[in-house]
Amino acid sequence: MSLAPKDEHEAQVQFALERGIPAISAVMGTRRLPFPSNVFDAVHCARCRVPWHIEGGMLLLELNRLLRPGGFFVWSATPVYQELPEDVEIWGGLRRWRDDGAEMVKLTKAMCWEMVSKTSDTVDQVGLVTFRKPADNACYMKRRQKEPPLCEPSDDPNAACSQVGVYGKPAPEDFVADQEHWRKVVRNSYLTGMGIDWKTVRNVMDMRAVYGGFAAALRDMSVWVMNVVTINSPDTLPVIYERGLFGIYHDWCESFSTYPRSYDLLHADHLFSKLKSRCEVLPVIVEVDRILRPNGKLIVRDDKETVDEIKGVVRSLQWEVRMTVSKNREAMLCARKTTWRPTEAEAR
After folding, report:
1. Pick from 190, 194, 176, 208: which is nearest to 274 by CA?
2. Residue 8 domain-assigned?
């Protein structure tokens, strides 16, 4: 998963998505990044001028939260970053890096991270340091000073692995049923019955992913799927990462951190009806319109009343409604965003 800061580098998200690489715009600050704990095997920061040591190491502790036990942090910087006076305390000057000098060394030692390698490229002098997070708590328990502190026992990163599944069945049965459901839906409906040219689809988003069954059903295709777990849903995002898929937490009553017109297909299974108690459908569809590329597709499965409302909104945007199907108060919609834009007179 690639992240670009919300500043002059924000367009890097567009570059990544154009290459078919998962990416969001994000910022490391006073709030956690929208990912569960212990899910990434490696974190890489390139041309990295981040002051990891400030505020008690808060930023580096966030990386520690995201890394799996035994995971790696790969940190590189160009020569100018290594030698600027304001950065020397961060890098310590890679060529002069000692075991007891720089603030970063002190912090990583206190966090029980092991420095496994440090190099400086002989051609462009780019410095590279690799740290490894411990695989167990043995080092933490031996520390004389308990700073930074261990997480509280109540801060459970595996809360998603409960005994009862999202749909009310025991978790293993629930998971298997979800996977089989989406395999059938994709095979029997999405791939052939909607007129979607899947050769033109690279970037896909499942706006309400649950276990990631929709993304798993597309595993043999040349696409990647951003799995979104909504903030008012059961926390199944750790399960999605355990499947080797990508995902993020998000509140669809707010905008999504991505460059405009960056997804080829959005999929929403019973999302909009669940949002109605918190926000209106219209602004969410406006956000969908912002995210989708021209000629991008939206697939909605929901109750008939909600689907009819969405159909009215997308038609007002001059979208092409490809297909609508309804049965037993449930309905499905497939719509294509067009290249239409209002004229000056229409926009008044």
Report:
1. 208
2. no
